């Protein structure tokens, strides 16, 4: 068994780094490469100072940093809604990168994704081969071997024989589920009251989240393209950096930093102006450049934008990504825990920031296990109301269903929710319209079919101006995927890397430690308006940024400001009770709220456990990914110190 902690990187170090320098030299400096004489040339001396140094012992040029770019192959049902089909083509053309990493697997995605094959056209493949770029991604889904074989066939059709493909497998544990259930060892990721009995009987897949060990092994075997199944999104970046710098599993600080570097770029343009609450401040904020992580040998890293003018990298855009989808100050990964309590982000040039202050801790003996099963049935439709008396029109629609279906015990979920409010003195009918969304789930189809019957019967006797979503297919009962996250011990997994006819078995982590939980705090100094002078009632978002996201049934929201005095106000004002109040009608006492602070980036962070009620594949919420909770909070009116408001809106 060969584990990450036991890999010997020395055998290929010189060849690997020399090749990288040769390619960079040709593309960036446009002169020849003479290994014996380059140290004496003035041009290479300048290059030496920027990127690396000559090692007299190894008699070879050693790069001090690795550059990793990330395009987010975020695919759902075969349709790209992340970076688009041109992402890979752009990344290989827009400046230097050593590695390209991509994340295809959200919690709703299962099978292997052919979108990579579409994006990897002949010209792009030729550029990758010519520049010596390595590609690592998790598009293999449930069949990494199948996607690897398809990739090899594609390369053969292109006449490219220089790119070696490897795949990592072992995340699929569905064959072990019966045994794991019998032993009772599977516990829920964050709710000890939920047992495996809650999983629906027809299990579609059960996949453990893998780390970087298999990726490092693939690179050590000489792979140029590494295809994984369900590995953690940031692990692709970690594997690249660990292989490049020769880190071992004991390099906790370096690994933790690379984990956060991966987290910063794993969502592509989310780090360069996408989904950014300060988007108005970026002049050209579309078709943004992709983020690159420049990772140094000691783990310190820099994030900057590729060589094109659109988008932006700043302390705020990177803070937005750092606080996105995290669950606490301890960021858990299958190879390390990153403690970001004292993380620091500072500008270090135009469209460039430096990130430091990350501490590495030993990982626990378990990793996340995603279990997807066939759930029950669900349907939905929308009714639209226009103009006046919206409250009464909503009540009339609800009364019609209460009259016709007084007993709703056949439904696990039955909701009629209003979305939007008509504009006062509206300038168009569209701006006078709001949506009443009807959403229901049941273990049987027939109760769901009754919804259509009631709605059709009510239509002609309904409120004035009532009209429907005319796509009646949405009212037909359809099965949904039920998702539940558990924990599985590493030593239960059988992970291996396959590259050609060579196979490497990946051992469990050599050392682990018990995880004692997240470090949570409420405000230690209650807010007092007398400390900050006169106040003005304004939207929270006048001076406060936000980014929100999802993890299973939970949502997270990071709130941060730009100035130290604003942070002292924010951390004292934004208590758990204040946060509950700002959620208003969306707050439910069954939710568990967790709060912590990241003082060096002036952030107060909350996790709302349970608000997504099953996660994106089955939640009754329209925003099943919790992307907009932060913007909802920024729209809430609060009493803000007047002196802050005089600084203008962010």
From TrEMBL:
This is DUF1446 domain protein. Residues 543-638 form the AtuA-like ferredoxin-fold domain. It comes from the Eukaryota. Residues 81-496 form the Acyclic terpene utilisation N-terminal domain. InterPro entries: AtuA-like_ferredoxin_dom, AtuA_N.
